[in-house]
């Protein structure tokens, strides 16, 4: 559901302010009926007319980006730093990231103009499994990793159980690589979880989001999701995986 004035503005008919005026003036119809209140919300299947002309709704688009490190998960940045939409060329729809990855984190990030889809995937109640690979300073023991599996206390509460897999350790360099799967999406959560057991994260990459992986992409590359992938993600979110 989206506000009527927002839908009109997104269709390129008028600015949001002008759209509000058009509504108040009685020039907007929803499913054939004149609407004069500003609070009205519409779905994709509602017909919206402005001055008796049906508006074309923006097509929903879905992209998967392999976000490089050193990029902001936003559509613009006041300080002129690179943002995730800089990597998606020739797309006219107003896409934005689904959730976020830290500036220093690389990996899988979805971009869309579908607000409902984005809300579904980031809603705390439905959050999907996300798998990260962390390069750590130091080599944790099996017992320390078990603490992450059970949940650790952070300043915003205890984390939900996680799946953790030790990939490799280098005693000479004092570094290790650990894979972790979580379904929550708190700010800097993975970094904070490893810090909580005494192992700062050197590098972090998100490798999977629900059923999606980075397979076939290099950093900075992007591809469209297939309709099947979109459906599958929606279904996963709704069943709480
Ligand atoms: N956890 C983090 O610490 N950083 C991210 O970007 C994502 C998850």
TrEMBL record:
Q: Name one GO molecular function term.
A: isomerase activity
Write out the entry's keywords from A to Z: Isomerase, RNA-binding
Enzyme's top EC category:
isomerase
Q: What is its EC number?
A: 5.4.99.-
**What sequence ranges are listed for the domain RNA-binding S4?**
2-65
PROSITE patterns, sorted: PSI_RSU, S4
Q: Give the matching Pfam families.
A: PseudoU_synth_2, S4
Tell me which family the UniProt entry assigns to this protein.
Belongs to the pseudouridine synthase RsuA family.
PANTHER family recorded:
PSEUDOURIDINE SYNTHASE FAMILY PROTEIN-RELATED, RNA-BINDING S4 DOMAIN-CONTAINING PROTEIN
Protein name as annotated: Pseudouridine synthase
Q: Which organism is it from?
A: Bacillus spongiae
């Amino acid at each position: 559901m989206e506000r009527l004035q927002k839908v009109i503005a997104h269709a390129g008919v008028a600015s949001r302010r002008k759209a509000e005026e058009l509504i108040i003036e009685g020039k907007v119809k929803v499913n054939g009926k004149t609407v004069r209140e500003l609070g009205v919300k519409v779905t994709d299947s509602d017909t919206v007319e402005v001055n008796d002309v049906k508006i074309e709704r923006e097509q929903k688009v879905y992209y998967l980006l392999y976000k490089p490190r050193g990029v902001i998960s936003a559509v613009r940045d006041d300080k002129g730093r690179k943002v995730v939409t800089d990597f998606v060329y020739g797309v006219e729809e107003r896409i934005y990231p689904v959730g976020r990855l830290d500036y220093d984190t690389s990996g899988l990030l979805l971009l869309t103009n579908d607000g409902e889809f984005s809300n579904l995937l980031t809603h705390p109640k439905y959050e999907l499994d996300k798998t990260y690979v962390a390069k750590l300073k130091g080599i944790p023991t099996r017992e320390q990793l078990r603490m992450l599996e059970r949940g650790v206390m952070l300043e915003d509460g205890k984390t939900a159980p996680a799946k953790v897999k030790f990939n490799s350790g280098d005693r000479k360099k004092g570094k290790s690589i650990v894979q972790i799967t979580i379904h929550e999406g708190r700010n800097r959560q993975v970094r904070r979880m490893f810090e909580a057991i005494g192992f700062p994260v050197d590098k972090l990459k998100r490798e999977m989001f629900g059923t999606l992986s980075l397979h076939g992409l290099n950093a900075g590359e992007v591809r469209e999701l297939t309709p099947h992938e979109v459906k599958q993600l929606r279904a996963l979110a709704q069943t709480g995986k």
